[in-house]
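User: Membrane protein. Structure?
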Amino acid sequence: MFNVSREFAPPFSLIAPFFVIGSIFYLIASFLLPMFGADASHFDISVVGWAHLFLLGFVMMIIFGAMAQLVPVVLEVGHFSVDFYYVIWPLLGIGTILMVLGFWLAPGMLPYGGMMVLISMLIFLADTIMTLRKVEHVSLTVKTVAVTNGFLLLGILVGFAMALGIGAGVGVDISKWLNAHIVLVLGGYVTLTIMGMSLILLPMFGLSHGFDEKPINLSFKIMVGGVLFYLIATLFDSKDFRFLAMLTMIGAMGLYLYQIWLIYKTRARKEYDIWFKSMLFGYGSLALSLPLGFVAVMGGPENVGLAAVWFLVMGFFTFLINGHLYKIIPFLVWFERYSPLVGKERVPMLAEMYPKKEAEYEFWFSAAGVTIAGFGLLFSSDTMFKAGATFIAIGAIFLVQSVVWMMNFGKK
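Assistant: Predicted structure:
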């Protein structure tokens, strides 16, 4: 597990801001959720602003922080320049705030915020690409890192072009490129990154071995093809091709779920800790999102599509990220503060290094909130959606408390 030498491991002070700031953005986004109704649309500028607050401030911030640590593990090489990460989080954080303010208050701020986000991601991509050049063994996870970063580059360039269109009047067809931007970032980067990292993290934390990896290898290829197909369909403005691309991506995610089932069946660790519960809810949300997405793609009502996206983002993405925080942060703290003491004095176990009660509260409030709000979207009920959003906000408070508690564990 985590065979990371001190030569390659980045300092804890570099990674900690990503997790703390990401958690704070999650808290802010959660508290703002109740202001929306069950009839919200992704074309609504206030929804677009909230989506960037959540996806850039929380999802991307946490993923970048995790990648700072996981790159040495996955690629078995050191970063090209780990110091780049000291620049990434301030640029990403300030850029996110400016973009959100641009969407909500002053469109002229969008290009400036978009430029800061673009620069932060280009720095991240530069380090990752230069690090990949040192890799000798090209595994599926290595391919995933390479491909996802290509999609991220395309996604942020499209997003920056749209920011210029809204904030500076540059001629960009927002309605044409918005969905392509979403597919490139959420499908091409976030989803494929989760697929690649889960092949490392799930067997490691669940002690799974001996499972067949053919489904995820096939799923990866189909998902990449689906994202590329959607981009081409957008270029040629073909509704039929976009339809086929969406079906392709749904099929790829279904195959990925089968791979997760194979990993689950071969696990040796049977403990139902907060990480395992989060994985169950996250993958359960994905299993619910896929048929809803299929119905929406086949011409179902808009509320079905909203519910599908909700369970994908707030159920699948969020619970996989939050669940892994309870594993990754304790390890980072242990590695920084206790690994030099091994063999000299008693050191804590990782299971002792997260707050059990706060973690349980976070899980149950968040799970209840995602479920209630999701069905509120499905049945177009503002009351259910706002009630669920309130539960999510309460869960976010416990998440921030847990992150701070874990960060300060053993601190003198």
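The radius of gyration is 20 Å. The first helix runs from residue 12 to 32.
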